[in-house]
Amino acid sequence: MKILVTGGAGFIGSNFIRYVLENRPDWEVVNFDALTYAGNLANLADVADSENYRFVKGDISNPDDVRGVFGEKFDYVANFAAESHVDRSLYEPNLFLKTNVLGTQLLLNQALESGVKRFLHVSTDEVYGSLGPEGYFSEISPLEPNSPYSASKASADLVCRSYHMTFDMPVVITRAGNNYGPYQFPEKLIPFFITRALNNESLPLYGDGLNVRDWLYVEDHCHGILTVFEKGKDGETYNIGGASEMTNLEITRMILSILGKPQSLIKFVKDRPGHDRRYALDYTKVKKTLGWQPKMKFSEGLKKTIDWYCNNQKWWKDILSGQYRQFYELHYKERK
Ligand code: NAD
Ligand code: DAU
Protein backbone atom coordinates (compact mmCIF):
# COMPACT_ATOMS: atom_id res chain seq x y z
CA MET A 1 0.00 0.00 0.00
CA LYS A 2 1.36 3.41 -0.94
CA ILE A 3 -0.10 6.44 0.87
CA LEU A 4 0.24 10.17 0.24
CA VAL A 5 -0.07 12.13 3.49
CA THR A 6 -0.57 15.87 2.99
CA GLY A 7 0.35 18.13 5.90
CA GLY A 8 2.48 15.35 7.37
CA ALA A 9 4.95 17.80 8.94
CA GLY A 10 2.26 19.25 11.22
CA PHE A 11 0.99 18.01 14.57
CA ILE A 12 -1.53 15.28 13.70
CA GLY A 13 0.00 14.43 10.31
CA SER A 14 3.42 13.70 11.83
CA ASN A 15 1.87 11.57 14.57
CA PHE A 16 -0.12 9.72 11.89
CA ILE A 17 2.98 9.03 9.79
CA ARG A 18 4.81 7.64 12.83
CA TYR A 19 1.72 5.55 13.68
CA VAL A 20 1.53 4.11 10.16
CA LEU A 21 5.27 3.34 9.99
CA GLU A 22 4.97 1.49 13.32
CA ASN A 23 1.71 -0.33 12.66
CA ARG A 24 1.82 -0.93 8.89
CA PRO A 25 5.54 -1.45 8.25
CA ASP A 26 4.90 -2.72 4.71
CA TRP A 27 3.25 0.57 3.64
CA GLU A 28 5.15 3.22 1.72
CA VAL A 29 4.53 6.77 2.99
CA VAL A 30 5.07 10.01 1.07
CA ASN A 31 4.71 13.21 3.12
CA PHE A 32 3.66 16.23 1.01
CA ASP A 33 3.87 19.48 2.97
CA ALA A 34 4.44 23.16 2.20
CA LEU A 35 6.28 23.70 5.53
CA THR A 36 4.29 26.74 6.58
CA TYR A 37 4.95 28.20 10.05
CA ALA A 38 3.17 25.08 11.45
CA GLY A 39 5.13 22.51 9.45
CA ASN A 40 8.29 21.22 11.08
CA LEU A 41 10.46 18.38 9.82
CA ALA A 42 11.87 18.05 13.35
CA ASN A 43 8.52 16.39 14.17
CA LEU A 44 9.67 13.40 12.12
CA ALA A 45 13.40 13.43 12.83
CA ASP A 46 13.25 9.95 14.39
CA VAL A 47 11.70 8.33 11.29
CA ALA A 48 13.17 10.51 8.53
CA ASP A 49 15.64 7.82 7.47
CA SER A 50 13.10 4.99 7.27
CA GLU A 51 13.31 3.20 3.93
CA ASN A 52 9.58 3.40 3.33
CA TYR A 53 9.24 7.14 4.12
CA ARG A 54 9.88 10.16 1.88
CA PHE A 55 9.28 13.91 2.14
CA VAL A 56 8.23 16.05 -0.84
CA LYS A 57 7.92 19.80 -0.36
CA GLY A 58 4.82 21.25 -2.02
CA ASP A 59 1.68 23.32 -1.66
CA ILE A 60 -1.75 21.68 -2.06
CA SER A 61 -3.13 24.93 -3.49
CA ASN A 62 -0.47 25.09 -6.22
CA PRO A 63 -1.57 23.13 -9.34
CA ASP A 64 2.01 22.43 -10.50
CA ASP A 65 3.05 21.08 -7.11
CA VAL A 66 -0.03 18.84 -6.90
CA ARG A 67 0.38 17.58 -10.49
CA GLY A 68 4.05 16.96 -9.72
CA VAL A 69 3.48 14.77 -6.69
CA PHE A 70 0.84 12.73 -8.51
CA GLY A 71 3.51 11.94 -11.10
CA GLU A 72 3.67 8.73 -9.05
CA LYS A 73 0.68 6.58 -8.22
CA PHE A 74 -0.84 6.24 -4.74
CA ASP A 75 -3.37 3.79 -3.34
CA TYR A 76 -4.48 6.10 -0.55
CA VAL A 77 -4.49 9.85 0.11
CA ALA A 78 -4.88 11.30 3.62
CA ASN A 79 -5.51 15.03 3.53
CA PHE A 80 -4.30 16.68 6.75
CA ALA A 81 -2.85 19.82 5.10
CA ALA A 82 -4.67 22.92 6.28
CA GLU A 83 -4.46 26.22 8.02
CA SER A 84 -5.67 24.97 11.38
CA HIS A 85 -5.68 27.77 13.95
CA VAL A 86 -9.00 29.55 14.57
CA ASP A 87 -7.32 32.69 15.96
CA ARG A 88 -5.21 33.09 12.82
CA SER A 89 -8.31 32.77 10.64
CA LEU A 90 -9.54 36.05 12.15
CA TYR A 91 -6.59 37.86 10.53
CA GLU A 92 -6.13 35.96 7.26
CA PRO A 93 -9.44 34.37 6.16
CA ASN A 94 -8.40 34.38 2.48
CA LEU A 95 -5.43 32.10 3.19
CA PHE A 96 -7.76 29.66 4.96
CA LEU A 97 -10.09 29.52 1.96
CA LYS A 98 -7.20 29.13 -0.47
CA THR A 99 -5.50 26.27 1.38
CA ASN A 100 -8.43 24.50 2.96
CA VAL A 101 -11.00 24.74 0.17
CA LEU A 102 -9.16 25.27 -3.12
CA GLY A 103 -6.24 23.11 -2.00
CA THR A 104 -8.57 20.24 -1.13
CA GLN A 105 -10.37 20.57 -4.46
CA LEU A 106 -7.07 20.47 -6.41
CA LEU A 107 -6.04 17.33 -4.54
CA LEU A 108 -9.41 15.68 -5.14
CA ASN A 109 -9.19 16.43 -8.84
CA GLN A 110 -5.72 15.00 -9.24
CA ALA A 111 -6.45 12.01 -7.02
CA LEU A 112 -9.58 11.27 -9.08
CA GLU A 113 -7.60 11.44 -12.30
CA SER A 114 -4.95 9.09 -10.98
CA GLY A 115 -7.54 6.59 -9.69
CA VAL A 116 -6.78 6.38 -5.96
CA LYS A 117 -8.56 3.65 -4.02
CA ARG A 118 -9.43 5.90 -1.09
CA PHE A 119 -9.23 9.64 -0.33
CA LEU A 120 -9.62 10.40 3.36
CA HIS A 121 -10.29 14.01 4.27
CA VAL A 122 -9.44 14.96 7.87
CA SER A 123 -12.09 17.34 9.17
CA THR A 124 -13.26 18.73 12.47
CA ASP A 125 -16.21 18.96 14.86
CA GLU A 126 -16.08 22.74 14.38
CA VAL A 127 -18.05 22.42 11.13
CA TYR A 128 -21.18 21.75 13.22
CA GLY A 129 -20.97 25.09 15.05
CA SER A 130 -21.68 25.47 18.75
CA LEU A 131 -23.70 23.38 21.23
CA GLY A 132 -25.63 24.47 24.31
CA PRO A 133 -25.06 22.65 27.61
CA GLU A 134 -26.91 19.52 26.43
CA GLY A 135 -26.69 17.19 23.42
CA TYR A 136 -24.06 15.99 20.95
CA PHE A 137 -23.19 16.48 17.30
CA SER A 138 -23.89 13.45 15.12
CA GLU A 139 -22.86 13.05 11.46
CA ILE A 140 -26.28 14.33 10.37
CA SER A 141 -26.22 17.49 12.48
CA PRO A 142 -26.46 20.63 10.31
CA LEU A 143 -23.23 22.36 9.29
CA GLU A 144 -23.23 25.75 11.04
CA PRO A 145 -19.60 26.95 11.13
CA ASN A 146 -18.88 30.19 12.98
CA SER A 147 -15.26 31.11 12.17
CA PRO A 148 -13.48 31.55 8.84
CA TYR A 149 -11.49 28.42 9.79
CA SER A 150 -14.55 26.25 10.41
CA ALA A 151 -16.34 27.70 7.38
CA SER A 152 -13.37 26.71 5.21
CA LYS A 153 -13.36 23.19 6.68
CA ALA A 154 -17.13 22.82 6.18
CA SER A 155 -16.75 24.00 2.59
CA ALA A 156 -13.99 21.46 1.96
CA ASP A 157 -16.20 18.70 3.41
CA LEU A 158 -18.95 19.64 0.96
CA VAL A 159 -16.54 19.63 -1.98
CA CYS A 160 -15.40 16.13 -0.88
CA ARG A 161 -19.01 15.00 -0.72
CA SER A 162 -19.67 16.36 -4.22
CA TYR A 163 -16.71 14.40 -5.67
CA HIS A 164 -18.20 11.23 -4.27
CA MET A 165 -21.77 11.97 -5.41
CA THR A 166 -20.85 13.31 -8.87
CA PHE A 167 -17.77 11.31 -9.85
CA ASP A 168 -18.29 8.25 -7.66
CA MET A 169 -14.94 8.95 -6.06
CA PRO A 170 -14.02 6.78 -3.03
CA VAL A 171 -13.98 9.62 -0.50
CA VAL A 172 -14.41 9.33 3.28
CA ILE A 173 -14.48 12.16 5.82
CA THR A 174 -13.49 12.04 9.50
CA ARG A 175 -14.49 14.77 11.95
CA ALA A 176 -12.55 14.84 15.20
CA GLY A 177 -12.62 16.88 18.39
CA ASN A 178 -9.71 18.86 19.89
CA ASN A 179 -6.51 16.83 19.66
CA TYR A 180 -3.69 17.02 22.18
CA GLY A 181 -0.39 15.20 22.60
CA PRO A 182 3.28 15.40 21.51
CA TYR A 183 4.40 17.76 18.71
CA GLN A 184 1.40 20.11 18.89
CA PHE A 185 2.39 23.62 17.82
CA PRO A 186 2.58 25.78 20.97
CA GLU A 187 -0.13 28.23 19.94
CA LYS A 188 -3.01 25.82 20.71
CA LEU A 189 -4.47 25.85 24.22
CA ILE A 190 -2.74 22.90 25.92
CA PRO A 191 0.85 23.29 24.63
CA PHE A 192 0.56 27.08 24.78
CA PHE A 193 -0.35 26.97 28.46
CA ILE A 194 2.18 24.23 29.34
CA THR A 195 5.06 26.15 27.75
CA ARG A 196 3.99 29.47 29.25
CA ALA A 197 3.57 27.96 32.72
CA LEU A 198 7.05 26.43 32.44
CA ASN A 199 8.32 29.95 31.71
CA ASN A 200 6.28 31.36 34.66
CA GLU A 201 4.24 33.51 32.21
CA SER A 202 0.52 34.28 32.58
CA LEU A 203 -2.07 32.00 30.95
CA PRO A 204 -4.59 34.11 28.96
CA LEU A 205 -8.01 32.45 29.26
CA TYR A 206 -10.61 33.82 26.85
CA GLY A 207 -13.90 35.13 28.29
CA ASP A 208 -15.10 33.28 31.41
CA GLY A 209 -12.97 30.20 30.65
CA LEU A 210 -16.07 27.98 30.65
CA ASN A 211 -16.10 27.02 26.96
CA VAL A 212 -16.10 23.25 26.58
CA ARG A 213 -14.09 21.13 24.15
CA ASP A 214 -14.13 17.35 23.54
CA TRP A 215 -10.47 16.29 23.95
CA LEU A 216 -8.96 13.44 21.93
CA TYR A 217 -5.46 12.07 22.45
CA VAL A 218 -3.67 12.28 19.11
CA GLU A 219 -2.75 8.58 19.02
CA ASP A 220 -6.43 7.66 19.41
CA HIS A 221 -7.16 9.96 16.47
CA CYS A 222 -4.46 8.28 14.35
CA HIS A 223 -5.93 4.88 15.18
CA GLY A 224 -9.39 6.19 14.23
CA ILE A 225 -8.14 7.47 10.87
CA LEU A 226 -6.40 4.19 10.06
CA THR A 227 -9.57 2.29 11.00
CA VAL A 228 -11.68 4.43 8.66
CA PHE A 229 -9.11 3.98 5.85
CA GLU A 230 -9.24 0.22 6.16
CA LYS A 231 -12.85 -0.44 7.09
CA GLY A 232 -14.87 2.71 6.31
CA LYS A 233 -17.49 2.92 3.58
CA ASP A 234 -17.08 5.21 0.56
CA GLY A 235 -19.08 8.43 0.77
CA GLU A 236 -19.50 8.21 4.56
CA THR A 237 -18.53 10.65 7.30
CA TYR A 238 -17.36 9.44 10.73
CA ASN A 239 -17.19 11.44 13.95
CA ILE A 240 -14.05 10.62 15.96
CA GLY A 241 -14.89 11.76 19.50
CA GLY A 242 -12.73 11.83 22.60
CA ALA A 243 -15.41 11.27 25.27
CA SER A 244 -13.54 13.86 27.37
CA GLU A 245 -15.46 17.07 27.76
CA MET A 246 -13.63 19.69 29.79
CA THR A 247 -13.90 23.44 30.31
CA ASN A 248 -10.82 25.47 29.46
CA LEU A 249 -10.64 26.58 33.09
CA GLU A 250 -10.58 22.96 34.35
CA ILE A 251 -7.75 22.12 31.96
CA THR A 252 -5.79 25.21 32.93
CA ARG A 253 -6.09 24.39 36.62
CA MET A 254 -4.95 20.80 35.94
CA ILE A 255 -1.88 21.97 33.97
CA LEU A 256 -0.84 24.35 36.74
CA SER A 257 -1.34 21.78 39.45
CA ILE A 258 0.59 19.02 37.59
CA LEU A 259 3.47 21.47 37.02
CA GLY A 260 3.34 22.72 40.62
CA LYS A 261 2.79 26.31 39.46
CA PRO A 262 0.50 28.87 41.19
CA GLN A 263 -3.13 29.25 40.03
CA SER A 264 -2.48 33.01 40.11
CA LEU A 265 -0.84 32.64 36.66
CA ILE A 266 -4.40 32.48 35.20
CA LYS A 267 -5.38 35.74 33.53
CA PHE A 268 -8.89 36.24 32.09
CA VAL A 269 -8.69 38.20 28.83
CA LYS A 270 -11.08 39.52 26.16
CA ASP A 271 -13.05 36.71 24.50
CA ARG A 272 -12.34 35.31 21.03
CA PRO A 273 -14.88 36.78 18.53
CA GLY A 274 -17.44 34.15 17.47
CA HIS A 275 -16.12 31.84 20.22
CA ASP A 276 -18.03 28.53 20.08
CA ARG A 277 -19.34 27.62 23.53
CA ARG A 278 -19.27 23.84 23.47
CA TYR A 279 -18.30 20.94 21.20
CA ALA A 280 -19.16 17.30 21.95
CA LEU A 281 -19.22 14.44 19.47
CA ASP A 282 -21.50 11.42 19.29
CA TYR A 283 -19.20 8.73 17.83
CA THR A 284 -21.68 5.82 17.97
CA LYS A 285 -21.41 5.30 14.21
CA VAL A 286 -17.67 4.58 14.09
CA LYS A 287 -17.91 2.52 17.30
CA LYS A 288 -20.81 0.36 16.11
CA THR A 289 -19.87 -0.06 12.46
CA LEU A 290 -16.04 -0.06 12.57
CA GLY A 291 -15.28 -0.96 16.20
CA TRP A 292 -13.22 2.14 17.05
CA GLN A 293 -13.40 4.06 20.32
CA PRO A 294 -10.97 6.35 22.19
CA LYS A 295 -8.73 4.61 24.74
CA MET A 296 -6.85 7.39 26.51
CA LYS A 297 -8.24 8.85 29.75
CA PHE A 298 -7.85 12.64 29.69
CA SER A 299 -6.02 12.88 33.04
CA GLU A 300 -3.47 10.31 31.87
CA GLY A 301 -3.09 11.81 28.37
CA LEU A 302 -2.56 15.27 29.84
CA LYS A 303 0.20 13.98 32.15
CA LYS A 304 1.91 12.23 29.21
CA THR A 305 1.65 15.41 27.16
CA ILE A 306 3.06 17.58 29.94
CA ASP A 307 5.95 15.10 30.40
CA TRP A 308 6.67 15.30 26.67
CA TYR A 309 6.86 19.12 26.71
CA CYS A 310 9.05 19.04 29.84
CA ASN A 311 11.42 16.54 28.18
CA ASN A 312 11.51 18.22 24.75
CA GLN A 313 12.15 21.84 25.59
CA LYS A 314 14.53 22.40 22.70
CA TRP A 315 11.74 21.46 20.25
CA TRP A 316 9.36 24.17 21.48
CA LYS A 317 11.99 26.75 22.39
CA ASP A 318 13.24 26.67 18.78
CA ILE A 319 9.68 27.37 17.62
CA LEU A 320 9.04 30.14 20.14
CA SER A 321 12.20 31.97 19.15
CA GLY A 322 11.15 32.03 15.46
CA GLN A 323 8.61 34.01 13.43
CA TYR A 324 5.74 32.67 15.58
CA ARG A 325 6.44 35.49 18.01
CA GLN A 326 5.04 38.07 15.55
CA PHE A 327 1.59 36.48 15.55
CA TYR A 328 1.64 36.09 19.31
CA GLU A 329 2.44 39.74 19.92
CA LEU A 330 -0.22 41.05 17.52
CA HIS A 331 -2.91 38.68 18.77
CA TYR A 332 -2.41 39.13 22.51
CA LYS A 333 -2.15 42.91 22.25
CA GLU A 334 -5.76 42.77 21.01
CA ARG A 335 -6.91 40.35 23.74
CA LYS A 336 -5.80 42.55 26.68
P1 NAD B 1 -1.09 21.88 11.97
O1 NAD B 1 -1.36 23.32 11.78
O2 NAD B 1 -0.25 21.43 13.11
O3 NAD B 1 -0.41 21.28 10.65
C1 NAD B 1 -0.84 21.62 9.36
C2 NAD B 1 0.22 21.13 8.37
O4 NAD B 1 -0.27 21.43 7.05
C3 NAD B 1 1.56 21.82 8.53
O5 NAD B 1 2.61 20.86 8.43
C4 NAD B 1 1.63 22.78 7.35
O6 NAD B 1 2.94 23.03 6.89
C5 NAD B 1 0.79 22.03 6.32
N1 NAD B 1 0.21 22.92 5.31
C6 NAD B 1 -0.46 24.08 5.53
N2 NAD B 1 -0.81 24.63 4.35
C7 NAD B 1 -0.37 23.79 3.39
C8 NAD B 1 -0.43 23.81 1.98
N3 NAD B 1 -1.02 24.82 1.32
N4 NAD B 1 0.10 22.78 1.28
C9 NAD B 1 0.72 21.75 1.95
N5 NAD B 1 0.83 21.70 3.28
C10 NAD B 1 0.28 22.71 3.99
O7 NAD B 1 -2.52 21.19 12.00
P2 NAD B 1 -3.04 19.92 12.81
O8 NAD B 1 -3.52 20.36 14.12
O9 NAD B 1 -2.05 18.83 12.69
O10 NAD B 1 -4.33 19.56 11.94
C11 NAD B 1 -4.24 18.70 10.81
C12 NAD B 1 -5.61 18.53 10.18
O11 NAD B 1 -6.52 18.02 11.15
C13 NAD B 1 -6.21 19.84 9.70
O12 NAD B 1 -6.90 19.58 8.49
C14 NAD B 1 -7.19 20.23 10.79
O13 NAD B 1 -8.24 21.00 10.28
C15 NAD B 1 -7.66 18.87 11.25
N6 NAD B 1 -8.11 18.78 12.64
C16 NAD B 1 -7.31 19.27 13.64
C17 NAD B 1 -7.73 19.10 14.97
C18 NAD B 1 -6.89 19.61 16.11
O14 NAD B 1 -7.35 19.61 17.24
N7 NAD B 1 -5.64 20.00 15.91
C19 NAD B 1 -8.95 18.48 15.25
C20 NAD B 1 -9.74 18.01 14.18
C21 NAD B 1 -9.30 18.16 12.88
O1 DAU C 1 -12.36 21.12 17.71
C1 DAU C 1 -11.36 20.81 16.79
C2 DAU C 1 -10.50 22.02 16.54
O2 DAU C 1 -9.73 22.21 17.73
C3 DAU C 1 -9.60 21.89 15.33
O3 DAU C 1 -10.39 21.80 14.18
C4 DAU C 1 -8.65 23.09 15.22
O4 DAU C 1 -7.73 22.88 14.16
C5 DAU C 1 -7.88 23.21 16.52
O5 DAU C 1 -7.06 24.33 16.49
C6 DAU C 1 -8.85 23.30 17.70
O6 DAU C 1 -9.59 24.55 17.67
P1 DAU C 1 -9.90 25.38 19.00
O7 DAU C 1 -10.19 26.77 18.63
O8 DAU C 1 -10.90 24.66 19.85
O9 DAU C 1 -8.46 25.22 19.70
P2 DAU C 1 -7.55 26.25 20.54
O10 DAU C 1 -6.45 25.42 21.13
O11 DAU C 1 -7.19 27.45 19.75
O12 DAU C 1 -8.53 26.69 21.71
C7 DAU C 1 -9.11 25.75 22.59
C8 DAU C 1 -10.01 26.51 23.56
O13 DAU C 1 -9.17 27.31 24.41
C9 DAU C 1 -10.95 27.49 22.89
O14 DAU C 1 -12.17 27.53 23.63
C10 DAU C 1 -10.25 28.83 22.99
C11 DAU C 1 -9.49 28.70 24.30
N1 DAU C 1 -8.21 29.46 24.38
C12 DAU C 1 -7.27 29.23 23.42
C13 DAU C 1 -6.07 29.91 23.44
C14 DAU C 1 -5.03 29.67 22.37
C15 DAU C 1 -7.97 30.35 25.42
O15 DAU C 1 -8.83 30.54 26.32
N2 DAU C 1 -6.79 31.03 25.44
C16 DAU C 1 -5.83 30.86 24.50
O16 DAU C 1 -4.78 31.53 24.56
At CATH's second level, what is the architecture of the domain at 2-180 and 216-240?
3-Layer(aba) Sandwich
Give the strand order of the largest sheet, numbering strands 1, 2, ... along the chain. Answer: 3-2-1-4-5-6-10
Q: SSE string, helix = H, strand = E?
A: EHEEHEHHEHEEHEEHEEHEHHHH
Backbone shape? globular
Could you tell me the strand content as a percent range?
15-25%
- The overall pLDDT, averaged over residues, is 97
Count of discrete alpha- or pi-helical segments spanning 4 or more residues: 12
Major sheet: 7 strands, parallel
Radius of gyration: 19 Å
Helical fraction: 40-55%
What's the CATH H-level homologous superfamily of the domain at 2-180 and 216-240?
A: NAD(P)-binding Rossmann-like Domain
Number of strands: 12
Structural class based on helices, strands and sheet pairing: alpha/beta
List the helices and strands and how they pair.
Elements: E1 2-6, H1 11-23, E2 28-33, E3 53-57, H2 63-69, E4 76-79, H3 86-89, H4 93-114, E5 118-124, H5 148-167, E6 171-176, E7 178-180, H6 189-198, E8 203-206, E9 212-217, H7 218-231, E10 237-240, E11 245-247, H8 248-259, E12 266-269, H9 284-290, H10 298-311, H11 313-320, H12 324-335
Parallel strand pairs: 1-2, 1-4, 2-3, 4-5, 5-6, 6-10, 7-9, 8-12
Antiparallel strand pairs: 9-11
The structure holds nicotinamide-adenine-dinucleotide and 2'deoxy-thymidine-5'-diphospho-alpha-D-glucose (DAU).
The site of nicotinamide-adenine-dinucleotide has 30 residues, from helix 1, helix 4, strand 5 and strand 7.
